[in-house]
Amino acid sequence: MKRVLSGRSVDRVVTVATVGLAAAVVLADAGVPHIDIVEPFLTNQVLIHFNTDANRAYTVQRCTSFVPSSNGVTAVWSNIVHVPAQPFNDHFVAVDTNKTLPVRFYRLMVTPQ
Amino acid sequence: MSRFLLTLGLMFGSGLAYACDLCAVYNTEANGGSARGLTLSIAEQYIPYKTVQLNGEELPPSILDEAFVDSSITHLVPTWNFSDRFGLSLNVPYVHKQFFRFQRTGTGVFTESGTESGLGDMSLIARFTAFQRAGENSSLFVNLLGGVKFPTGDADRVAEEVETTRELDSIYGPGHQHAFGGVHLRDLALGSGSWDGVFGVTANSRWKRLLFNAQFQYYLRTPGESDYEYGDEWMLSGGPGVYLFLREEFSLSLQALVVYDDMQPDTVLGRENLNTGMEAFYLGPQINLTIGTHFSANVGLDIPLEIDNQRLQNVPDWRLHGGLSWRF
Lengths: 113, 328
Description:
The complex is a heterodimer of chains A (about 110) and B (about 325).
Chain A: H1 10-17, E1 35-41, E2 45-52, E3 57-63, E4 66-69, E5 72-75, E6 78-83, E7 90-96, E8 105-111
Antiparallel strand pairs in A: 1-2, 2-7, 3-6, 3-8, 4-5
Chain B: H1 2-11, H2 21-29, E1 37-54, E2 57-58, E3 68-81, E4 86-105, E5 108-119, E6 123-134, E7 138-149, H3 156-172, E8 196-207, E9 210-220, E10 233-246, E11 250-263, E12 267-268, E13 271-272, E14 278-291, E15 295-309, E16 312-316, E17 319-327
Antiparallel strand pairs in B: 1-2, 1-3, 1-16, 1-17, 3-4, 4-5, 4-6, 6-7, 7-8, 8-9, 9-10, 10-11, 11-14, 12-13, 14-15, 15-17
């Protein structure tokens, strides 16, 4: 499992941050699993769009803050959506239904890498 | 003997018993088609849907293989024959479905297992024998069938299908493939909630010990529960056979049957339901039995030769069908 921030998606972080939300992205490598879009949905909910490759399971995780620590940055991530592996490519949209968080960071975890 | 042959001719035009309303009626015609009075028949179709296909291709092993539906439909069919040409059948199906499935939602993929059981959609079918000729060495019968299927079965699962589609449309946008796995909510419904038309033509012929049957069926679907509309369906089936025994008190025949089944896609929220619609060819044996002029039975197995389904669906592994009929 690789957890690498994607520079390509920073634009989206900025965009989404304007509505009080933020997205972090996990990529196995460039062009492979990543969050496509993070967008507001209904009242204070969030949609997280991502493509899924065949035979890979995906988990969308959320973090509400990063805290500086002796190891660098510490964060607590919680799973919000898990997508089991399918034998074909697909597109998935996860809904973060938590309506109270002012700021959120997301990452996408994939197994196997 | 001629009366026996007349009965037999009508009978084995009625031997098919697939998962359809008319097939159950064919079964009940078996021993009573040529005589006035009551005939009671019971027909069963058992179909395991364990094979998941994407656009007609079987998928490699995956978690999706865990999803299945085992479908059993038992039809009780009382028939009243007003004459040798005209009869009326009431088809009362009892449906039992055992399943395990996945459901995509905005907050993940969930699993669901259980059973759905109960009364299915009843239908009333009329038969008119348009042509009949029976001799010692040959016979030919042509029947016309038509009727109505009533919305007597529980269609709650159809309502769920519509509601889930509406919710996922709001997330994905209309037209996206929402399925996760090949078993869908509409597959679990006991009824459609719709009034449908049922039409059919059967032709049954015999020459000495050889026989050939052909059936055409058409199901005209209308919008039902939550305006969901199952796709129209038509079937063409038939094949040659031979009487292994042919006596007045006992007959036994063996047939090879080819079935073509075309199910059009369903309509949900005014557009095509992407994971529905299927074209299938089956081939299999059928055994038909009569004892005297009161009792008949048949059993057959349909083995898929090719199933071309749209998008992601579980398709039949095989279809087992059979029936017993008694003319009072």
